[in-house]
Every structure is written in C-alpha cells, then in structure tokens.
Design brief:
This protein has 315 residues and is mainly alpha-helical. It contains 14 helices and 2 strands, in the order H-H-H-H-H-H-H-H-H-H-H-H-H-H-E-E.
C-alpha cells in the first residue's frame, strides 16, 4: 500500500456528495492525531470569545467537570463523523448536542464562529503551520468545508458561509473584533490546560505546559492574560511539530481506522456509552426516563450518575 493511496482515493470522490466519507478518511486514516489536535485547538479558541468563554465559565462544567466535558465533546463529534447524519448513533449524537446547545441563549454569530474554527483550524495546522506530513489539497479543503456546512445546517445555523475562504475571513474578523479577556474564559482555559498537562506522565508535565502555551498565537495569549512565551519555547515547539511531521511522512500508511473514541485520554466511560445518555441535561432538557442522574449544585443541571451512560438493557 502506497503512502499516498488514500489521498488518491479521496480525489476520485466528489467534494460535496462524498464529503462525509472524505472527512472520515482524513480524520481516521490520514491525519487522526493532527486533526484531533487541530479541533481541540479550535474549541480552545472559542474560550477567548467573551460571549462563549463567559457562558462556559458560568456553567462550571469546564472548570469543575473538565475531563467529563472533554470526553463528551470528543465522543459526540466523533459519533457524528464516524456514523454520519442518518438514523443511528450519528443522529443520536447530533440530537444530544442540539439539546444541550438549545438550553442556553446562544447567538447565531457565536454558532457561526465556532463552526468556522472547525473549518479553518485543521487547514491552518496541516498547511499554514506546516505540522501535517503532507498538505491538504484544495479538493480536500472543499470537502471538509462542505461537511461542516452540512453539520451547521443540522444544527439550525443560519447564513453559513459557502467557501473555505469565507469561513476564514469570518473567523479572523470576529476574532479581531471580539477577542478579549474575561474571568470565565480564563478559568476555562486554565482548567483545559491543566487537563491537557495531566494526559502526560508526571516527569513530562513541567515541559508540557510551556510547550503547549508556545503553540498558542499572540491573540490567544493576550485574550487569556498569559505571559508571552519565550522565543526559545516558540522555536522549540514549532521545530518539534515540524520534525514529527517529517517522521510521520516516512512511516507506513495507516491501515486500521483510528477514531477519537479510541484515545486513551478519554476516561469517563470505561464500560461504553450511548450518545443519547452523555453530556449535561440543563434545567428543562429532557432526560432519558430510565437514567439515574445527579445534580450539579452550581447550575442545577443534571448529569448521568456513575454507570448510567449505557441503557440498562445493554449492560
């Protein structure tokens, strides 16, 4: 099997009609680790948007239940990507995500911004930063854009951009206009960084924190009120990521798909999960009738009790 067979297969598919399958190939075979990092960074950027960061801070979910919210977000997005928008786990995950979102007053502009980060950040990571073992082609960028446009429509988002360039311009303009420090955004950022550091062995953690912060651009550093990373860490982080890309390019192509749900960093549901039974259930949000829950004191939202992420008949 050639290192570029999957790329060649993608270019036999239609960028609009086959966008779901193209995104699956990119995310599970060509760039599973890279796209996972890029989407994580995409979500992280949203904390610097005051209307988003402060809302997440006020829910206390990302500060008091950081691991659970990390897992829920990764698993829901994974199931939509892996299983598609049709009946089954993909649609169940999409419905669960929409239930959570609709429990809060979120503007269409905020939805558009978050969606734009999903479209833009993988391209920036792989192409603009040079962290991919190969570049995404225009065909692949168009397919990924079409996939997230489709996701946006299923989320009820209005006025969705049509092209990658329009998404990029939207993201950059909204960040330039709105990025600012908030207590909530900083608290969510601190909690997320602490979780990311915890993914590594204890002896590596003192290095992981400055390494990770050095990957953040100046606008994020300023919005979160962090000290500017040193030139050493900026250079070291960039060289390390580009060095990794060169190594991956010489590796044998992946034959088995790797989904985000397989990540060892996901720890909340060791016995499995049903996408309709994970996440939070804010006040007024329907809870599966056979699921035991516990209340989050700070907000009154309900979350699954231990062992309740799988329906009783499936245990």
């Amino acid at each position: 099997m050639s290192r570029f067979d999957q790329r060649d297969k993608i270019h036999t598919l239609d960028a609009e009609d086959d966008c779901e399958e193209i995104v699956r190939i990119l995310g599970s075979l060509e760039f599973p680790w890279d796209i996972e990092q890029a989407l994580g960074l995409a979500l992280y950027r949203t904390y610097a948007m005051p209307s988003v960061g402060q809302l997440l801070g006020d829910t206390h979910e990302f500060t008091e239940r950081t691991q659970e919210r990390y897992d829920d977000t990764a698993l829901i997005l994974n199931d939509i990507m892996e299983h598609g928008f049709g009946p089954g786990r993909g649609r169940d995950a999409l419905r669960r995500m929409n239930q959570m979102h609709r429990s809060y007053e979120i503007s269409n502009e905020d939805y558009l911004y978050v969606l734009s980060t999903f479209v833009v950040m993988p391209v920036r990571w792989l192409n603009d930063y040079g962290y991919g073992w190969r570049r995404l082609s225009d065909h692949e960028i168009a397919a990924s854009t079409n996939y997230y446009r489709k996701l946006g429509r299923h989320m009820g988002i209005k006025d969705i951009p049509e092209t990658y360039e329009e998404f990029r311009e939207l993201m950059d303009s909204l960040e330039a206009e709105h990025f600012a420090y908030t207590e909530g955004g900083r608290a969510v950022s601190d909690a997320t960084l602490a979780l990311m550091v915890d993914f590594y062995p204890s002896w590596q953690r003192p290095l992981v924190r400055p390494f990770t912060k050095a990957l953040l651009d100046d606008s994020l550093i300023k919005a979160f009120g962090y000290p500017e990373p040193s030139a050493f860490w900026r250079k070291a982080s960039d060289m390390a990521m580009k060095g990794r890309a060169k190594v991956v390019r010489r590796m044998k192509p992946r034959k088995e798909r790797r989904w985000a749900r397989m990540s060892p960093n996901i720890r909340t549901y060791p016995d499995g999960y049903d996408p309709s039974r994970i996440g939070t259930f804010p006040q007024g949000c329907p809870v599966p009738h056979d699921m035991l829950t516990r209340e989050v004191p700070a907000t009154g939202a309900k979350v699954p009790a231990p062992g309740q992420a799988v329906a009783p008949e499936q245990r």
